[in-house]
Amino acid sequence: MITQEKYRTTVKELLASDSVKMVIGYKPGSTPDRRRPLFIRSSDDADQLVLDSTCITNLSGYLVAEGLLSDEKRVGIFLRPEGIRSINILAAEYQLNMDQIVIFGFDSTGREVRPLEGRHSKDFSALLSDIKENSPQISKEPLLESIERMNEQERFDFWQEEFSRCIKCYACRQACPMCYCRRCIVDSNQPQWVNTSSHTLGNFEWNVVRAFHLSGRCVQCGNCDRACPVNIPLRLINQRMAEMVLEGFDHFAGLSPTQEPVLASFKKDDTETFIL
Fold first, then answer.
1. Is the pLDDT of residue 157 over 90?
2. Residue 41: is its pLDDT beyond 60?
């Protein structure tokens, strides 16, 4: 088991040798059970680094910040398995170059944090092997099982009620690593694809459109769910879409940086059962 202090030492060594220009990790938040992103550029910054079971935020979205990977210098980042899957998707969608990233892979069981193998290697095979041990599988939450037992009208009413609380703050979009577009569809008003007002139709349009955009791309990290100020269980609709993609296309998102996007690729022998 690698201690927190050893991680700090390793980060300092990488910065001192100019192997990376920055490391993205975690620091204490506003309460004991919360952690904030930490952007480490010096030894003093590294002393703030915290790594424990409360470090659950998927930090991979910061890698696609404009200009961060614009030069040849590498960036280190602490990632859980779902975070590593995220950067695989971003690489497959040509949003970043894996050679520019140093991964500190970790996972947690209970209160214990364990390192993932191959965290400093440019060859990600060991990391991917560690991730694939328990993949593909999607753990289903009891509430989702309850929703699936509903009939169509009951499910529609459930989500309509949940989405009615949406205030169109777009915190879910900002927190999601897969929402990297410089201009989102909801920011376009000529033409206006999605009503920007916070009312029943506009709320439903926004949340359903976003769920479809994440089909075959969501890694169930929970960033959107935790960011929502009105506690809409967004993870559930995204989890259900992930299940449908796995069932229909045998596609588990983020297992490889060369994995083609499931809804943006096709094969000549694809089944066409959806055609009536």
1. yes
2. yes
Burial pattern 199-225, b for ≥16 Cβ within 10 A else e, equals eeebbbbbbeebbebbbbbbbbbbbbb
Last residue of a domain, one of 101, 132, 163: 132
Instruction: Clarify whether residues 119 and 149 are in a common domain.
Output: no
- Is there a domain that residue 258 lies in? no
Same domain, 118 and 151: no
Residue 270 placed within a domain: no
Residue 119 confidence (pLDDT): 43
**Average pLDDT score over residue span 69-74:** 88
Length of the chain: 276
What's the pLDDT score for residue 136? 55
Q: Are residues 10 and 111 in the same domain?
A: yes
Q: What is the pLDDT of residue 50?
A: 94
Residue 84 lies in a domain: yes
CA distance 238 to 253: 12
DSSP 99: G
- Element at 58 (helix H, strand E): none
Number of domains present in the structure of the chain:
2
Backbone angles phi, psi at 106, to 5 degrees: -150, 160
Going by their DSSP bridges, the two strands 112-115 and 75-79 should be labelled as: unpaired
87-131 residue pLDDT tens: 999 999 999 999 999 999 998 876 778 887 544 444 455 555 555
Predicted pLDDT at 201: 74
Structural domain containing residue 161? 142-251
Q: Give the list of residues 6+ apart from residue 45 with CB closer than 8 angstroms, or none.
A: 38, 39
Query: Nearest 5°: CA angle at 204, between 202 and 210?
Result: 100
